[in-house]
Amino acid sequence: xxxxxxxxxxxxxxxxxxxxxxxxxxxxxxxxxxxxxxxxxxxxxxxxxxxxxxxxxxxxxxxxxxxxxxxxxxxxxxxxxxxxxxxxxxxxxxxxxx
Length: 98
Prior knowledge:
The chain is α+β, with helices and mostly antiparallel strands. The chain is 33% helix and 10% strand. The chain has helices spanning 42-51, 54-59, 64-69, 71-80, and strands at 20-24, 37-41. Helix 1 runs antiparallel to helix 4. The N and C termini lie far apart (40 Å). The mean pLDDT is 93. Keywords: Endonuclease, Hydrolase, Nuclease. Pfam families: HNH (PF01844).
């Protein structure tokens, strides 16, 4: 049985039954349609989009290292890292404006 992929944001395994999705490092709306993607836990992906606008993602946060450096995301990563790999909960607040 292959090892579960690792979420590059929180560094936890992504079990096959966990909610997960692909994140475009450069948003599709900002020219990243055919650009690189990373597999993330759904909760991690939701937090990225609740924190940053598409323009901010394209301009300043288009790498995993840059995402990890954002203060709100760094606090989220520290919090979620203590949760089990399949953990999911609703992300508070609306998605950021495009």
